[in-house]
Amino acid sequence: MENFKSSGTFSKQAHVGIPEGLYEEEHGRDGFFGRVSHLYHEHPPVGWTNIEGDLKPRCLPPVFSKELKNNLFNAVLKNNDVQISIGVVYKTPDEFFRNADYDELFFIHDGEGKIETTYGHLSFKKGDYINIPRGTIYKFFPNSLCKILRIESASEFKDPSRGILGPNALYDQTVLRTPEAALGSEQDKEEYILKIKRLGKITTVSYPFNPLTAKGWKGSVYPRILSIYDICPIMSHRYHVPPSGHTTFVAKNFVICSFVERPLESSEHKVLKVPFYHSNIDFDEVLFYHQGSFFSRDNIDPGCFTFHPQGIHHGPHPKAFEKSNDKDWTDEFAVMIDAKNPLEPTDWFCNRENKDYWKSWRS
């Protein structure tokens, strides 16, 4: 059992009725899932004037530019558990693909089309998460320019526990879309090419027939689609729900959360509306901004990435508290990846990042 103690000035309830003139910091373990304490400071923990070293908060401006090549994904951040990439698909690739290294999760930032898999066909559109189990053969058939966030996992993507909320919390299982068995639509070629990724290398296999040959399937391993717009957020007018309450997928050593539009907390009950300052010492935090107005951040647009490494405080920008006073609703949609093991920015990230992002907290 946890052994709670307290000393000095503090609030009766975390994130509620913060003492006048003080700033609350959440010091938590194991992401937002573990033990936690709250500290009440005279100055905001992000009130720095300078930072020297690797722990600066980092930001990529909108990433989907004309330089991106069709069906080529550019790695942004990675470790041994997860690799985060962005890319575009605007025409059907010549080859089929099978990932033998990772389970894959595609988030469709924009565009629509169809993905044909071993299990059958699935239509997708903006806001869809497409979960492709490792070893599944697939090919994209876009109807328009598709801007895609890809998350590759060394472990399976699993659902979070719903606990006392019940099985229909977060989203009803009937909103999940699964493929209807069907052969591959391309049946007029002399040769079909399959590219397989294993240990980061590509093996090419040729067939005289379309490799999507399954006429049926059964079991518990299969592709599925969940729309971010079908997620029903956990809400409380009297408490600011931490990011763990917005978890959408759980994998080994990282989680994926979805922030979606929702009513904001009650000013009448003195509940903090903006994300609280936190020292999330065990996890790196990545946010991909999908849609809406991100009122807790200055100069952040859809398509931006922010990266906050473990060990440095983060939280809302100075203007966010004032902006939130008159807001009753947030219309923002974002994808968060919280990684237990440190993420390494790629050269692609470093060459494109906003080097002055950390300065945006200065008064």
Protein model, in words:
The structure is a single chain. The protein is an all-beta fold and 363 residues long. It has two domains: 169 residues, Jelly Rolls (Sandwich); 155 residues, Jelly Rolls (Sandwich). It contains two helices and 24 strands. The strands form five sheets. Strands 15-10-7-12-5-4-24 form a seven-stranded antiparallel β-sheet. The longest helix is centred in the last third of the chain and has 5 residues. It is elongated and about 75 Å long.
So what's the overall shape? elongated
What is the CATH domain class of the largest domain?
Mainly Beta
Q: What's the alpha carbon Rg, rounded to whole Å?
A: 22 Å
Strand content: 25-35%
Number of strands: 24
Q: How many H/I helices?
A: 2
Low-confidence stretches: none
How helix-rich are the residues, as a percent range? under 10%
Number of domains: 2
Spatial separation of the terminal alpha carbons: 41 Å
In the CATH hierarchy, what is the architecture of the largest domain at level 2?
Sandwich
**Would you tell me which CATH topology of the largest domain applies?**
Jelly Rolls
CATH H-level homologous superfamily name of the largest domain: Jelly Rolls
Largest beta-sheet characterization: 7 strands, antiparallel
Q: Reading side by side through the largest sheet, how are the strands ordered?
A: 15-10-7-12-5-4-24
What's the mean pLDDT score? 89
Specify the structural class.
Answer: mainly beta
- Helix and strand run: EEEEEEEEEEEEEEEEEEEEEHEEEH
